[in-house]
Design goal:
Layout lengths: L10 E4 L12 H13 L2 E5 L10 E6 L3 E5 L3 H20 L10 H21 L5 E5 L6 H7 L6 E4 L7 H4 L8 H6 L3 E4 L2 H12 L4 E3 L5 E3 L2 E7 L6 H10 L13 E5 L8 H14 L8 E5 L8 H21 L7 E4 L5 H10 L2 E4 L8 H9 L7 E5 L5 H4 L4 E3 L4 H13 L2 H17 L2 H13 L4 H8 L1
Parallel strand pairs: 1-2, 1-5, 2-4, 5-6, 6-7, 7-10, 11-12, 11-14, 12-13, 14-15, 15-16
Antiparallel strand pairs: 3-4, 8-9, 9-10
Bound molecules: adenosine-5'-diphosphate and 6-O-phosphono-alpha-D-glucopyranose (G6P).
The site of adenosine-5'-diphosphate has 18 residues, from helix 1, helix 11 and helix 12.
């Protein structure tokens, strides 16, 4: 087949997290499951850590697509996952260089795992397979694959934001980053803002140049940096929300229900959200219906100190707000840390009058889109969305956008949302719903893979470099 023909090989996806029966909270896993259910292919992810890691893959399931795991030992889990991925890359890419905990040994473990994953992929990849690397756990995999002689088309999709140029400088491996990125054919980011940040970072690399058609070249390899905002399976989420089991919430009549659904992560702005709700309770008219704010936030990455800290801080904040405002028959904040089934979450997202999606930094935030899909178009609720969620680029015209750091105007937005007339709610919801259903998970998968399939092979790249 000529090199510029879209090819017909298999799709090989690699992500750290892979469902092993239980489906944990996290946008990536749901998105990849939905993408692979449509496209078919192979999904490779990390096994639970064991005493000894071995090369190769283990099959763990098949159906619409096949699932395999690579192995990882306990020390690597600490260094690669808890360490370099979640104590260096995650905080840095979420604009929190102050939380960065760098240890050389953690980076060594990251390199070892990235190399093992690359060897495993190289072993199974056939010449026409598309390789699609997901997220910050595997920034080096493509580079390793190239050193193993793999010439397949390789894409990266980064689910998290790309840091601004100053923050990138705090990465001890900043000098290696351009080579890691240029080993892909397509680097996919969530938003235009992320593309601008990455382009800015690449400009500092003297070996990288931008070509007339907007693609990039580094040492003879041509690659693209583009944004593909991830979506959800809106139809099936809407259906799940309609069919969800009724949950007895024991709310007072006419009490507005506010809802937040997040992993417990410092990037989600939960303390700021609680404080804005507190400010709203202070400004609320006496005698108006008393609102209930349910925050579902199951623990995440609890072996990392910053996650234990945020959990403690949030519990203290919820306790003190409830202490100040609660009554015998009213608890303003219900903070739920235990796991809640996805169908129940879908039902709550349908029932909520206001969704609070107010991260301090977030690649996209799928909950914003799930809320819109779940709501009843005839009597929809209002989305309060942070400027700092990637979703804000697509949803700014229908959501109430807030700056989560500005407590007073955030509190006013809560008041506006609670009191918004039906006509305005319907108008805003219709705009958002149209976008969420149009730019859904299938649209995301198809647009990314279409671009990757059409990427020039390295052979062409060499020619274009001359
Ligand atoms: P992140 O990927 O950073 O966790 P997203 O908002 O993009 O954030 O994705 C979170 C996904 O996980 C959504 O699909 C959401 O519905 C799901 N989720 C989050 N918390 C829960 C929960 N407590 N129970 C069930 N699903 C959850
Ligand atoms: C975000 C990341 C994913 C990750 C998920 C859950 O969505 O972008 O890569 O899988 O959070 O985090 P965890 O560390 O539990 O996999």
């Amino acid at each position: 087949m000529p090199d510029d023909e879209p090819h017909q090989g298999r799709l090989i996806v690699v992500s750290n997290r892979i469902p092993k029966g239980d489906v944990p909270a996290g946008g990536l896993v749901f998105a990849i499951h939905e993408a692979l259910t449509g496209a078919g292919g192979i999904w490779i992810g990390a096994a639970d850590p064991t005493d000894q890691a071995e090369d190769g893959l283990t099959k763990i399931g098949s159906g619409d697509y096949e699932r395999f795991t690579f192995s990882i030992n306990h020390e690597e889990h600490r260094g690669y996952y808890l360490g370099y991925a979640n104590s260096v890359l995650w905080p840095l890419f979420h604009h929190r260089p102050d939380l960065l905990e760098f240890h050389q040994g953690d980076f060594d473990a990251y390199v070892a795992v990235n190399r093992r994953v690359a060897r495993a992929i190289a072993e199974i990849a056939e010449p026409d397979d598309l390789i699609w690397v997901q997220d910050y756990h595997f920034l080096m995999v493509a580079h390793e694959l190239r050193s193993l002689g793999v010439t397949n088309r390789i894409g990266l999709f980064l689910h998290i934001p790309f840091p601004n140029p100053n923050d990138v400088m705090a990465l001890p491996q900043v000098a290696m980053m351009p080579a890691w990125m240029a080993a892909h054919d397509v680097v996919g980011l969530q938003t235009r803002r992320d593309v601008i940040s990455m382009v800015e970072a690449m400009r500092h690399d003297t070996k990288t140049q931008v070509l007339n058609d907007g693609t990039w070249i580094r040492e003879g390899r041509v690659f693209s940096i583009l944004n593909f905002p991830i979506g959800i399976d809106a139809e099936s989420f809407a259906e799940a929300a309609r069919a969800a089991p009724e949950v007895e919430l024991q709310l007072a009549p006419k009490a507005p229900l506010l809802l937040g659904v997040d992993r417990l992560d410092y990037s989600k702005g939960l303390v700021h959200r609680f404080e804005a709700f507190d400010a709203y309770l202070d400004m609320r008219e006496q005698g108006s219906p008393r609102p209930t704010f349910i925050q579902i936030a199951p623990g995440s990455r609890e072996d990392v100190e910053a996650y234990r800290d945020i959990r403690e801080k949030l519990e203290r904040t919820a306790g003190s707000i409830n202490g100040a405002h609660a009554d015998l028959d009213w608890t303003p904040i219900r903070y739920i840390r235990r796991h809640v089934d996805r169908e129940v979450v879908a039902g709550l997202l349908r029932r909520a009058d206001v969704a609070l999606v107010t991260p301090l930094a977030d690649g996209m935030n799928l909950v914003a889109k799930e809320f819109i899909a779940a709501q009843d178009p005839e009597d929809p609720g209002v989305l309060i969305l942070s400027h700092f969620a990637g979703a804000a680029e697509q949803m700014e015209s229908g959501a109430l956008l807030v700056n989560p750091f500005d407590r007073t105007s955030f509190a006013r937005a809560i008041s506006d949302a609670i009191h918004m007339p039906l006509e305005e709610r319907k108008e805003r919801h219709a705009i958002l719903r149209e976008g969420v259903f149009r730019e859904d998970i299938k649209w995301w998968t198809d647009s990314y893979l279409d671009r990757l399939r059409r990427a020039p092979r390295s052979f062409d790249s060499q020619l274009r470099a001359i």
